[in-house]
């Protein structure tokens, strides 16, 4: 996955998945201990295919300072997700790209919410009705929200989650709508400058 817009795509991370959500908090992509760094991973309860309807959750530790806007030497970071809580960054970085061996999936960043670690948003709805409820819950009290978003319960979507360095009990959640194939050409044209930056 990566977020275009900061030159060389400041967030380039493989997304791992295993049978629990604790391993990659402490282990890196090479399967060796990496305390406080870990790896970016998808919730173990998610179906692995990005074309499947369950709301995906992707987690990673935040490293470096929240106010910094620079690429650190440690490439295994997810702190970029915290930057979306800032309005200027949210407005200028609207795309997340997730690549599989088969294809690229494009996502539009829809909303950002800062929540307590015990938030009731941690759920994996799979039906359109339940996903509509999830979207409403996410939007209510969100830090930033894309007003003209087309997001609905019919969409595939992903939440990117990371810790806040200013308060370890808080999490930044970034909700992104997967662009359906029927809208992809228009979306790519609209965002071509960002995608080529």
Automatic annotation (TrEMBL):
SUPFAM superfamilies: Sortase
Entry-linked Gene3D superfamilies: Sortase (2.40.260.10)
Organism superkingdom: Bacteria
Name of the protein in question: Sortase, SrtB family
